[in-house]
TrEMBL record:
Keyword Cytoplasm in record: yes
NCBIfam families: yfiA
Keyword Cytoplasm part of the UniProt annotation: yes
Known partners and oligomeric status: Associates exclusively with 100S ribosomes, which are dimers of 70S ribosomes.
Gene: yvyD
Protein name: Ribosome hibernation promoting factor
PANTHER family assigned: 30S RIBOSOMAL PROTEIN
One term under GO cellular component: cytosolic small ribosomal subunit
InterPro entries: HPF/YfiA_ribosome-assoc (IPR050574), HPF_long/plastid (IPR034694), RHF-like (IPR036567), RHF/RaiA (IPR003489), Ribosom_S30AE_C (IPR032528), Ribosom_S30AE_C_sf (IPR038416)
Species in which this protein is naturally found: Shimia marina
Subcellular localization, as worded in the UniProt entry: Cytoplasm
Family to which the UniProt record says this protein belongs: Belongs to the HPF/YfiA ribosome-associated protein family. Long HPF subfamily.
Function: Required for dimerization of active 70S ribosomes into 100S ribosomes in stationary phase; 100S ribosomes are translationally inactive and sometimes present during exponential growth.
Amino acid sequence: MRYQITGKQIDVGDALQTHVKTELGSVLEKYAGRPTDATVTFSKHAHEYMCEATVHLSTGLTAQAKAHSTEIYAAFDGCAEKMDKQLRRYKRRLKDHHKERQDPVELLGASSYILAPEAEEHEAEPDTLQPVIVAEMETKIPSLSVGEAVMQMELAGSPVLVFKNESKNGLNVVYRREDGNIGWIDPQA
């Protein structure tokens, strides 16, 4: 497994890197069959350290966790606990997903855009209704079942996930509703 351990304006020493590799490795060994790579980023905001971890599994699923503390090791340990809890919660489904799927999840290429916020109310009317594109990036859309998409959205901690529905071969969306339930958008052909 490949590890990328970095710090944003923080020096990440060898001892911390070794601690991250052993602890995260033991968490992933229990639950995930074949993790491919892990990215762990440390940053500091005022007096607190923040740790963000993202793990990509060989099946195409991604798990993410964040934690913060006044000590850098405690921030990582909190992040590792959250990752452990997520993977433990989905262990059976990850194993089932792993058995049914012979090949990794198919990923489709797509463009992702970041748009500038709309002008303030007191400013003059814009000349055009077209939004200003701030950045353009390449993103991947996974080909999943609805159950796998919900699990992926939960593991990634994201509020919405666009995916290609394997059974209907069309683009679908799952999202977290304000009432706490999960919504699923399945457009008609």
